[in-house]
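Technical note accompanying the year-one report. For the benefit of new consortium partners, we illustrate the data format agreed upon in the data management plan: each record pairs a sequence with a C-alpha cell string. No post-processing was applied to the example shown here.
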Amino acid sequence: MSEARNQTHRTVLVTGGSEGLGLAIGQAFATLGHEVIACARTAAKLADAATQIPGLITVRADVSVAADRTRIFSEVAAQARAVDILINNAAITRPHDYTSSTTLHTDRARDEIEVNLHAPIEMTRLFLAERRRTGRDADPGAVVMIGTPGALIPLEAHPSTARPRLASTCSPSRCAVSCARPQRTW
C-alpha cells in the first residue's frame, strides 16, 4: 500500500449500506474522502443510496448467502480495489412470539442468526483471508461490528444476542476490531 493511500484514502465496505445506520456510516466515510462500497439485498435501495453518496460503489448481495459473500470480495478485487475497513452492519430483528402459530411453524430464528451472527463472522473471515492473499495482512485495517438492538431487548427472545461478542474472536490479526452497540434507552 502506498504511503499516500495509507494517510489519506481508505476503501470501506459497509454491509447493509443502503439505508439507516449503514447509509449514514457510508456518508460519513465519503465526506472524509474515503471510497465507500455498500452492499445490500435490494437493488432499488442501493440505487437510491448511490444518489445520496457521490461515487458510491454498490454490490447487490445478501450476506446470509455464502456465494454472495464470496462474490462481494471477488467483485471488489475485479475492480482492482482492496477493502481496508469492513463495517459489518447488516442486521435483522424480528419478534419471536412462541405462543404464535407463525413462530412455532416457521424457523424465524434461523435467518436472524444467519444475518446477525454467521454472516459477520464469515465476512470477517473473507476480509482477513483477502488481506492475506494480497499480501496486505500487515497493513492497517479495521473490522467494525455493529450490534443489533435485538441483543439488548429482554422483552422477547432474540437469537442474535451473541453478535456483540464476536469482536473478541477477531483480535489476533493485525486489524483493529471494534464492536458498536446501542445503549439501553428505556
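Partners are asked to follow this layout when depositing records. The longest strand covers residues 35-40.
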